[in-house]
Amino acid sequence: MHPKPMFWFPVKRYGWGWGLPVCWQGWLVFVSYMILIVGGVVYFLLQRNPLALFGYIWGLTAILVVIVAVKGERPVAWRWGGK
After folding, report:
1. pLDDT the model gives residue 83
2. What pLDDT, in 10s, does the model give residues 2-55?
3. Which residues in 34-63 are b (16+ Cβ under 10 Å) and which e?
4. What is the largest CA-CA distance in the chain?
5. Residue 14, strand partner residues
6. What is the pLDDT of residue 59?
7. How would DSSP label each residue in 22-65?
8. What CA–CA distances, in Å, run from 1 to 5, 13, 23, 24, 33?
């Protein structure tokens, strides 16, 4: 049996970046991000404030990228499908 991975987000097999989560903590972060995005879209569009919506989405995405960079598999590099 393989040991449980220490990371929440594996690197992508092709391209640069990370893939979908591999543990519940990663899924919690990902689903929370999606819920906050949808809630923000509804709220800021009802307020008719698209500039605030842009800042809100940018801020949430920046937080997500930091979390994934810290808790994701390393090293992140461009990948062509090999191991």
Report:
1. 61
2. 666 689 999 998 999 999 999 999 999 999 999 999 999 999 999 999 999 999
3. eeebeebeeebeeeeeeeebeebeeebeee
4. 54
5. 80
6. 98
7. SSHHHHHHHHHHHHHHHHHHHHHHHTT-HHHHHHHHHHHHHHHH
8. 12, 23, 17, 19, 32
pLDDT band at 1 (very low <50, low <70, confident <90, very high): low
Please say if the pLDDT value at position 58 is more than 70.
yes
| Contact present, 24 and 9 (Cβ < 8 Å) | no
CA 41 from chain centre, in angstroms, equals 18
- The rounded distance, in Å, linking the Cα atoms of 9 and 70 is 10
Rounded distance between C-alpha atoms, residue 80 and residue 67, angstroms: 25
Length of the chain: 83
* Residue with token string 């500039």: 51
Domain ranges of the chain: 23-72
